[in-house]
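Researcher: Before we compare anything, I want clean individual predictions. No alignment, no superposition, just each chain on its own. First chain goes here; please echo the sequence and then give the structure tokens.
Model: Echoing the first chain and its structure:
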Amino acid sequence: LLALIVRILTVIFVGKIPCMEPTYLQLGEDIFFDRVEVIGYSPFYSVVIYFLTNITGDLFKASATVYIFGGIIINLYIFLIGKLIYDETTARIALLVSMVFPCISIAVVGYSHSVILAAAFEIMAVYYFLLFLKDKKIFFAFLVISLTILSIMTRAEVLIVVVPFIFIVSLLRLYEKNVGFCGEHRFQENNIP
């Protein structure tokens, strides 16, 4: 509830359409009316903002909706990751910090909410990746892949954030499983102190 209030107050006080939103709306319209020759921006957010603008009847409301719900998703999954890795107290502290962290809550309001939506998909992918590592259920792997694709389709910059994180953690897990941390298993097998 507090995350919702913080997001709504941010939208009210900043109270403007981010500078990139009209461009995304135009691209979304061009996609649906088959007027696109070259797509210069990631298409998924264009489609989302086009649909929401048609539903709400206003680009500001559509953009604010993405910002509010994307921000709440980020906050929720930061809490869940904190709880999964640490404990509920640490998760609550992480939640409070994520609700007021300027890069997530205020600075993006003036740029483009595609960043917030992509970050929401990214943080969900990270959470399900950690669950996959813990429980080894293929459903979580499917969610990681799906959310990563949606995130990349929203903002291509995700390729330099989430994908390397998943790749590095996977390699570390393989290394740990096969060799042990810093080669402990190999040293023990060869009787090396």
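Researcher: Okay. Second chain, same rules.
Model: Second chain and its structure:
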Amino acid sequence: LEDLSFALPFDVAGGLNILAGILTLFLLKETLTKEDRKEKHNLNIFEQIKKLFESGTLKFFNIVMVIFTSMISGVQVFFGIWLNESFQFTAQSIGLFWGISGIVMTVVQLNVARFFTPRKALIVGFGVYGVSVIFLLIAEHLLNISVVIIAFAVMTIGTAMILPSINSRLSLEGKKNQQGLLLGISQSMGSL
């Protein structure tokens, strides 16, 4: 798409997001009953964060989410620069890496629940992610693109196991009428 127009990939991504929003609006069923939705919520974000940290389990998983999201952000920022500097990757090649990563993450996330409980997926995911970091350190010294590709694939699988597991745990810990709020605040904190 980039060959047609530099902005076209972004336009396609935006269009797909709009399509996803429309499909969600019309196809996704509401899980809260009318009685659950009648309950008034305090919109003070600081009180909501305070409530979030009252539970030890919620506090733990939110801290894990913030730390892991920070790690992912660092990888997303510096991985492309490193590939360009060390292996002369073009923007198109780096984009291809991330595109394939998204597809692999989707496939892994669709299948994680079949093989692991959320707790086991979290543990295995962090182990897999740790192995990928070791591979990347080796790749840095060897300047071997094959090792980089393997490390990136392993990192993608680890990430795909960790994120849904954290979200699942946060969702399970919250009351029925708090689950969306918990996930929203957690994602917001991770975005910081």
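Researcher: What stands out in the second chain?
Model: The chain has a mean pLDDT of 81. Additionally, The longest helix spans residues 56-87.
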